[in-house]
Amino acid sequence: MLDGIVEEHLERTDGGGGHAEDLLDVLLKIQKEGGLKFPIHMDAVKAIILDVFSAGSETTTTTIEWAISELINNPMAMQKATAEGYDVQRGTQVLVNAWALGRDERYWPDAPEEFRPERFEEEAAKADFGGGDFAFLPFGAGRRMCPGMAFGLAGVELPLASMLFHFDWKPPGPGSAELDMTETFGLTARRTDQLLLRPVLRVPIPGV
């Protein structure tokens, strides 16, 4: 099998024409042109390709084989794996209720709707917001998660940290009345009332 694959690539290379190079093309080119301190023999090229095939197939089949073996030896686990869940009809549109997940007390005990930023500090973090934990999905998860997550985080964290570092923020009027937190539906969940605050300088901004 490997001989046939190598021959096919050699014929394609000798025939010329533009085509995208893969790993085998690069190895054959290095073998042909030389330039390395040690020669690359055809046996070494075949060994590398065989290793790539094995890594992508042999490991998978072996893992499945061991998983089935364990399930056979643990019939209760086998029964549980096949009996639980839901029957979802073909063509059904399934939506994840991210709102409910973020307020489920099984994952967010002690008043899940209270503002507690310390929940997300490194050592006390209850969930990974990067899509690895389904208890909190602000950016989604899987192949269709938000592609702009890193950009969005940088665009929020840096300005917010700078605002808190340089200023104390207070309501515009006297006293410390609690802000109205009513939201309005739209492209984003914006505040219903415009936010007006009074900044008090804490740390001067260099050059300003």
TrEMBL record:
Matching Gene3D superfamilies: Cytochrome P450 (1.10.630.10)
Main location per the UniProt record: membrane
MF (Gene Ontology): heme binding; iron ion binding; monooxygenase activity; oxidoreductase activity, acting on paired donors, with incorporation or reduction of molecular oxygen
Keywords: Heme, Iron, Membrane, Metal-binding, Monooxygenase, Oxidoreductase, Transmembrane, Transmembrane helix
Pfam families associated with the record: p450 (PF00067)
Binding site for heme: C146
Claim: Thylakoid is one of the keywords in the record: no
Location relative to the cell: Membrane
Name of the protein in its database record: Cytochrome P450 71D8
Source organism: Aegilops tauschii (Tausch's goatgrass)
Lineage, highest ranks first: Eukaryota, Viridiplantae, Streptophyta, Embryophyta, Tracheophyta
